[in-house]
Amino acid sequence: MKLHLTLSSLLLLACFKLSAQTNAIQFGIRAGVSGTWLSRTPGTDVQIRDAEKSGSGYFAGAFASFNVNRFSLQPAIIFNSLSSKTTEEVLSGDIVYRMYGKWRLYYIQVPVNLVYNIPVHGGKFYLGAGPYIGWALSGRFTPASNESPGQSSPANFSFKAKFGSDDRSNFKSFDYGANVVAGFEFDNGLMINAVHDLGLANIEVGNYPYEKTRTRSLGIALGYKF
């Protein structure tokens, strides 16, 4: 009898602890749209007019949430598409290099955010930040369809982006940076948030006409946490 009582007590205790830890680890999905652009620094010997303008992007992925009190550690894997419109005229001595169109780049990103949760009636607000790393999958340059006559450009055809470290590459394959996320999670698991990705890596291969190129995005997403 004592053995049965002891086993029953241990079983009840284990069930209680398991119930208390039900939300210790959660999983979720999210997807959204963003405004994206390439932040570029021209070389010292060139002048660039209207170099880069923002484009539209989108992203989708899954995440895990390791919850301890009001804090959550949230690693994720995200498919990210970003674009940047190029309407540049590069002046270097007597040479004028013109390029009109849009870059579209695709990445796999792995962010890890530390999130602070603020419970309120109906859900909770949350704010977080952390680093991310990214790998380029593919990309393409598409020329502008409304290019004016007389604005001859060597980039008047669509071509695939080349990723690597040699002189024939357009961008480096590896990216890293920091992101900030803020939003609201309803009690039913539905989430809405804003996220800002700040690329810190210089993905420029050479130093002409740009010394540095970094990725940027600001988006809004919907998600669901199971």
Automatic annotation (TrEMBL):
Keywords: Signal
Outer membrane protein beta-barrel domain sequence ranges: 20-203
Annotated InterPro entries: Autotransporte_beta_dom_sf (IPR036709), Beta-barrel_OMP_2 (IPR025665)
One Pfam short name: OMP_b-brl_2
Residues making up the signal peptide according to the UniProt record: 1-20
Protein name per UniProt: Outer membrane protein beta-barrel domain-containing protein
Source organism of the structure: Mucilaginibacter gossypii
